[in-house]
Amino acid sequence: MSTVPTEELDAFRARAREWLAAVGPPEVPLDLDARFAVLRRWQRTLFDAGWLGLSWSKEAGGQALTHAHQLVFVEELVRARAPQPIGLIGLEVVGPSIDRYGTDEQRRDLLPRMLSGADIWCQGFSEPEAGSDLASLRTRAVLHGDHYVVTGQKIWTSWAHEAQWCALLVRTDPSVRKQAGISYLLVDMSSPGITTRPIRQMTGDREFCEVFLDDVRVPRSNLLGRENEGWAITSHTLGSERSGATLRRRVELEVALEDALGQLRSGGIDDDRVRAAVGRSHIAMRVLDAQTRRTTDRLAADTGPTPVDSVDKLVLNEAEQTVLAEIAGLLGPLRAVPGARPLGLRSDRWAHEHLYSRAASIYGGSAQVQRTIVAERLLGLPRG
To answer: Which of 173, 189, 241, 265 is deepest in the core (most CB within 10 A)?
Structure first.
């Protein structure tokens, strides 16, 4: 359990709630470009007020508080119906790994700008033939003097067309087993030879991108950790992504379910179909809530990456897809009608969230891969 005194967290929660009420969260537009600009300004507002990097070290520009403080602020942010900052890939995924494995210069130069939103980061991990099997990546980096020359392609790279930096996985030694020959580079997205191409999703949004790298020169000083030892750092990055996303999404889903219930009540509907959908959603959320309590304890203990991170991801997948499918299911065929409000539910919101939720079992490591990790590393089952 958290070792932070309850009264300290209560006082912190009250201060966060008071600040959020005073500043007022911004309205988030549907247009993707306008949304990006609003959320970037919101990130700067949060940073200036000292609400970002709560559990990061002081040297990284953070507040050196605990993960319990971070969770409290996430809860209050979501319950105030305030949006998340745009730079979550940096804040939740890449930043913790740079803080742990980076040089003093990397931490000093990169992390404060990441926190403030001055620099937005993307994550160059997946490739067209190396998504779930990430260790099969083919993007090559060859050292020439003081620079790596990088050639290859990445895909599903969120916000790459807006990002200033990319955490890029590359193969630096093709002669060894696939995990052993991977390195982790920090790449300036303005470097010559980088091309980004947004991909339209079934939600209509275009924040996913393909990234093409054609003889891109990356300074050797931008290597994170040691050459050919990037897989361990990758495990840390993915563990941060899974645990951080689980804590945040649990609160977001709780609030989404509260919003749906409020809309259903306004619609005056109380029948068996609605009660069954709400009941199944609450069961999924109680399971996720129990899991995130364990997650918070692990983060507080600072155990680093663990196969239990994969359990977090699987439980989150199930809860997210269950809750949003149950709500969207109540829309019936009207989910495809913009502006419709069957049963009091706003079709635009719930149809969009349901479509996006289908990716939950893919991004951050597919459900199949997570089950394999649980089977082999937690249950001790033989490799298939």
So the answer is: 241
